[in-house]
Structures
1.
Amino acid sequence: MSTTNQVPTPQFDIAAIMGGLYGDGIIGLKGAFDREWVREMREDIEVLFDEALARPGGAVGRGPKRYYVEIHPERVRGFLDLVSHPWVVAVCEAVLGPDYKIVEIGFDVPGPGALHQPWHRDFPAPEETLIGRRLNSLAFNVTAVDVFEDMGPFEIAPGTQWDDPSEFEHGMFPPKSLYGRYEERAQQKMPKMGDISVRSALTIHRGTANRSDKSRPVLVLGVDAPDACNAERHDLQVTRAFDKTLPDEVRRHMTYRVVDALEPIVQAHTIEGLVMGEA
């Protein structure tokens, strides 16, 4: 039973949100945050990335010169701003329902020299999508830098969240015989600092080759509908002190455990097919 009677924030077009995510599989909001907010976020990411690289298993390879790090919410100063942003709330409620759950926060860092990733999904499509034709999870992305063509922009093939995965390796990697379909549809995304995007992680996508001398860090927020199980792949933790500061409306939307002191996260969501990358 729903624990709230709230409706999505009215200033956003719910039909456009639903149409975009069920159609293209990705939508965005420009200028959601000011650039100073993003600069602080990048400072936090840089500290956390250095810590992760110094710790065995702290950063998971997603291809050459490309890493993913799962983090603790309280280590990012803007966490509450992000999860309570009216557009983020409106999207989650519209697509996932009023009892959506935040299950993951982390960041990707494609560094200089990162190669093209193979086209992929982030995990196999659940029956709710394959049979029920319903999206039950979303991934929000917030770039930490202005993205340009030579920085290995994120590339996505709109509408492919519904593609039949029967020929996909591990339910995630389409055969190269299908690459032409994705390349015909491909859109490269070049957001600016302050922009937010949200997508179905099932929409076929890849990181492209970073030919610049700059990294392209991006914050990732994973959110589930009540019947999704992506929390099993993650380990969202908060300290007792931080838990006391959480507004009730945020706390009830988080799947986490309370700890006396933050523990290193053992990343359970590796994607073996991305380790080598492509030329």
2.
Amino acid sequence: MITKDTFRQIVNAQRVTLLGRDAGLEREILTGLTFTPTHAQIISGIRRSGKSTLLLQLIKDRYPTGFFLNFEDPRLYNFEFDDFFRLDEIISQSESSAIFFDEIQVIPQWERYVRQKIDEGKQLFITGSNASLLSKELGTKLTGRHLTHELFPFSYREFCDFTSVTASADSLETYLHTGGFPGFVDNPDPEQLRQLFDDILIRDIAVRYSVRDIRTLRQLALFLVSNIGKPVTANKLTSSFAISSTSTMLEYLSHLEQSWLLFLLPRFSYSLRKQQVNPRKVYAIDTGLIEAVSASFSEDRGRKFENMIFLELRRQYREIYYFSEQKECDFLVFERGALRGAIQVCYHLSAENLSRELDGLWEAMNHFQLSRATLITFDQSDQFEQQGKIIDVIPAWKFLLNPLLPPHHPSPGSSS
């Protein structure tokens, strides 16, 4: 239980600290955060991606009297549901129409209080760094009363703006190594990314899900981060680590995904059952984090490059698969169930790999009757045509400036 006087001290101290910070670069998702008193705006994403700074930008630019509270403050560790009643009195006294709750998912039954404030016509902005805990509550008490947004580390466009560099192969090379965590871009000390990695494993996974074997969890996470772009299965991983069962391994993988540390990309299939049992490809949240913690001593630019392209696609689209039949295509992008495009990623096209890279795309294009597809390289441009189908080869730095894919158009003569 927390007294009202303690609440006031915490709220005032947090506000002074927040407003004293630099608002930094205006994030791209700000345009999607509009005033909607009938819905809570949920901003989720990995730790240190800039969620608190985003709230600061909203307060300074749009809601100067907004009420802010970060629930991860150590002084709030004993917060109980009944404390919301005392907190409510302080919010009422502030006469704020907008309320900003940072990392509220650590408080049990928080969704009941949020629903109450929405019913009162308050505008709520809520951040969280655990997708599972957020989605569980959002799917019960707040169904139909929230809008969700994901905040990733800096995109390449944001990176260029933040560092005042021009989009080019040189700046892309820097971005590939640095990644997009704002604090690391500003002060590239790898130790802060290693600490972030451990914080996620301990605070967002071990503590919240009562995982006792932190050593094995860390070994698993390091293995996956060191094997980005490669297919994995829970069965094979279970046999490689000291984990009791496949179901436990599946839980660990889910925790790593829900914390936004990793993504497991499914293989495309019209059968949901096959999607679930087929190997999934591993991608990490940030290429700088990969370099900082990876156990791989050989630098593999190609796989980090593929990871970087995946992240940009994932910023724009939720439904992405890889395609693998006789050949393989890196990414199939869907939106609302409709195919938007097929994308192959190759760091550098050469005589040795040209046929392999093109054949994977041709097969995907034929399978889905696509007339056009994209092959992304580091800094090469070209175009290939076969039976009326076209593959555009474009440099990554150009693609990353405008990553939205055009609507899918069937190839000539197709019935789709």
